[in-house]
Every structure is written in structure tokens, then in C-alpha cells.
Fold these 3 entries.
Entry 1:
Amino acid sequence: MRYKIAITGGEPTANKNFLPFMIWLRQNYNEYLHQILVTTNGSASLRYYSNLLEQVDNISFSLHSEHVDEKKFFSMVLALKKKLLPN
């Protein structure tokens, strides 16, 4: 059996061990994983999300309009999309 794991918040990327945990999970249990999905508020860096996407299958961004700098948030999301889908 293969598992789908969905990780949501609080904010998972706020944990300094989250990315190392994702790497460990893939290295040790990849044969049991169908998908890893992460929901984040977009507060980490573009570099962080680029590295995270090497370990997970999907990143979903949740927008909290009362706390967000919309320009920064959408700039980061669009930059990440451009990096993933250059054409």
C-alpha cells in the first residue's frame, strides 16, 4: 500500500527541521509514498520552496489576506511557477 500524506499548519515551513524531515522521509520511505502534499502560507523564501519541491509532489499556498503583503506573496508564487514551468 502507498500513502498520500498531506501536511498543513500551523505553518510547516516555520519548523527548521521540516525540509530535512521531508528529505529523510523520501530517502527512507519513498516506496510507501504515493504523494506528499504541503499547504503553506508562502512566508518562506523562493529558494526554500524550490528545494522543498524536490521532495514533495504539491505545494498549496493559503492566502490570509489580513496578514499578507499581497505584492510579495504573488511575486514569490509567480517566480516559483516560472522556475517550474519556464515556458
Entry 2:
Amino acid sequence: RTREGGRIVDEAAVIARVRAGEPEAYAELVRAHTGIALRAAAALGAGADAEDVVQQAFVKAYCALGRFRDGMAFRPWLLSIVANETRNTVRAAARRHTLADREAAFAAGPAIPESADPAVATLETERRRALVAALEKLSEEHRLVVTYRYLLEMDEKETAQALGWARGTVKSRLNRALRKLERLLPDFHPREHAREGGEERD
């Protein structure tokens, strides 16, 4: 289940309706996951092509629903398709995206409330920019795991599914990525910091 607007969308029920010959029901999944899909595409380097990447990912996901395993979560499965589409788009265009492209992922992320103190809002914006700059200095694997766990706010199981990694791999790579980020950003304190010894809350 996932939340769309103010209500809960039963993903399994929607997928069952699509498979039963009600293709228009797929629009519920599109509405529920477009936001996070756009953030993922932007964070992974799609830049100005993010909307096209997401549209193509939804088309491919729809065509592959017959192979979607019952009991799986739709969001990480979709984001794995978004990640593949982003890589294909970047390679086909043969270009390097700038730091500004990744900053777009933060612009599409959780908004700073309009009621927030201007000084606090400015500080938060600067922190986001600093984090984006630091992520650029990580390896692709470390950048991916931090992006999924913290920028897209996915749990460990969803991250493993989206990246096609074992959960133990997600945990170990996240720990190493966080250590590197802490050296680059002494004030970086993620909400679910890996505990000493490689353990973390699920």
C-alpha cells in the first residue's frame, strides 16, 4: 500500500485490476509514484530529461506488469526501472551532467514550509547544496545507496530491491558512504545513522 494525496492506494488491488482488463486503473499507480520517480531520475543524473525518463519507465513498468511478482512492493521495482532508464539516457546522450542537475533532485524533494523562518530556510538550502556537492565526490555505488536511503527516504529492503543488491551489501556500502560523507561534511547527521559495527535500524 502507498499513500496518494490523502488516501491509501492498495497497489496489489490496482495491479490485479489492470491484469483483469482495466488498464485505466494504472493511472492510480502513476499518480502515486510520479513524484518520487522524478526525484530519483533527477538525483541519478537525468537532468532536463527526467520527465521523459519517468514517462518511459512507467510505460515499461506497465508492459512488464505480467511479470511483476505478487507480494513485491511496486515502488522499488519501479525505481529500478527508472534507474535503468536514466543510465540508458545518459549514455545515449554521451554527456556529463553538472552539479546543478543533482540539485534539481532536492528542489523536487520535501519542500521547506513557507512559514519557516527565512534564516532557517536559507541554512537548509545551503545544507542541501553542500550535501549534493559532497555526493559528487563519492563512488557511484555509494552515491546510489545514499540517494535511495536518504534523499528518496526508502527503507533498507526497498533500497536492496531497487538496486538489485543483497540487504547486507546495502548495509555495508551505506556505512562506508556515511563515513566518507562525515569526513566531507562534519555536520552531516542522517536520521538513521548506521550504528558502530555495521548495524542499523530497519
Entry 3:
Amino acid sequence: MTNLQQLILRTDISGMPLEWIHFQTAVKLYYAKQVAYTCGSSLLEVHGGINARTGLRSELVLNSIIATYGSKQGLFGESYVPPLNNPTLFRRDNHLCLYCGGHFSAHDLSRDHVIPIVKGGRDNWTNVVTACKQCNSNKGGRTPEQANMPLLAVPFQPTYVEYVFLQGRSILADQMEFLSAHFPRSSSLRQRCLQS
């Protein structure tokens, strides 16, 4: 594979997904002896310089998933709240307006507060949905019931692993399979992950 932009999924030693990293970061982890094991497909073969003493050239094969020593168990608890931002929100809702059901580009979408802020609503995962700009404008400062605009899906807060999935841009099949195995059984993202 020659795509140097393909991200590598980094996990902790137990296999819990942590983050997406560039190949340069993966190389640093290998040479710092932080990689415990690898899985997934081979992505890239990196060649280094030639050793003056041995005359050998260093080579490193990078896989799509690498496990590193250490653990960040605190990230996976019930109290973890992923940062809320529009690009991730739009990916959570699959770029669909949750009022009209239309599929839109990110440029034509907005964040809508189900219970408007002016009515005491919060800016959090369980109170925001993706809405096209037209629907957001039509709803205004009203609740869906007041605006007669029922929601097509219930907003939810992603778990840490779901958040890692939502951060991925171009996810390979083996990475997708690995991530989906860590989703909660009730995850609404599970089906989308398996269809990709």
C-alpha cells in the first residue's frame, strides 16, 4: 500500500482501542520498544538508513492495528464523556438531518439542540442532533413537539470506542471489524460499522 495518509489504530496491551495515529508515530513507537504486538493487515514497509558497521538497512513493516504497552483504563469508564464537536456529531448521525431524513454534506448541516438552550437545554450529546440548516431554522427555539417536527432517532452519547470509530476518516475492513467487536451490544453504530 502506498497511501501514507492511512491511519493506524493504536490500542492498549489489552486490545482496547485508544486512538488513530500516523505512520510516523507508529515508527517512533516501534523504535521506542512500545509496541507489544500487531494485528490486521500489513500497510506499509518503511526503510531506514544503512548501518555503517553492519551494512544492513533497517526495515519495518507497519500493520493496520498496533497494541502498545500500558493501559488507559480510566478512559473507558461510565463517566467518560467524549468532546462534542460538529464533525463528530455529523458522523454519529451519518450526515442525516434527524428531522427531514435528508442526507447532506457537512457544509449544509448544523447542530440543533432538541431542548433549546433558551428553554434550559444543555449542549451535550444527548440533547443535540444533526439538522439541515433549513430544518434548524424552521424549528427555531422550540422543542420538536412544539414545532411538530418529530425526531427520526434518539440522540446518544458515544462510548470511548464509538468515539474512536467516529474519529476515523478512512477505516479499513480489519480495523472496522476490530472496533465493532468493542462496541456495546446495543450500539446503534454497530450495524453501520458492519455495512461499511
